[in-house]
Amino acid sequence: MVTVSDSDPETWGAANRPAAYVHRLAVAQTHRGSGLGQRLLTWVEARAADREAAVVRLDCATNNPGLRRFYEQQGFRYVRDVTVTALDGGRQLASSLYERELPQIAL
After folding, report:
1. Residue 105: what pLDDT?
2. CA-to-CA distance for 70 and 78, rounded, in angstroms?
3. Is residue 14 exposed (0-12), middle (13-18) or buried (19+ Cβ within 10 Å)?
4. Which residue, 36, 91, 42, 82, is CA-closest to 61?
5. Helices (H) and strands (E) in the chain, counts
């Protein structure tokens, strides 16, 4: 599963250009290693390009090296680390921000 939004000001701040924001990318354990996560990201990028977004952005837990490595292998570039407040309003979470530029198609 994956959720995509047009903004994420709590994590990324004000958008300086059109972007698609990936949230909650998850693949069932039974499908791990099948390439499903990569296919979901490809689907997100196609939808983002249709909406004329310049980049796809996402964040993940800073202390999850396996997930960070996965995103880097998919061509996402590390941007920076941030601290965000959990939805319950209490805990502070360290997140690593990543983005991938979408190819610009000349018309």
Report:
1. 60
2. 12
3. exposed
4. 82
5. 3, 5
The answer as to whether 107 is a domain residue is no
- Which has the closest alpha carbon to 57: 99, 86, 11? 99
pTM of the full structure: 0.90
Tokens of 58: 């996402």
10 Å Cβ neighbour count for 99? 20
Q: Which of 7-11, 36-40, 85-89, 101-105 has the highest mean pLDDT?
A: 36-40
What is the number of domains present in the chain?
1
- Residue 20, H or E segment: strand 19-23
- CATH classification of the domain holding 42: 3.40.630.30
pLDDT digits (tens, 9 = 90+) for 15-69: 788 999 999 999 999 998 899 999 999 999 999 999 999 999 999 999 999 999 9
**Please, which residues bridge with residue 19 across strands?**
55
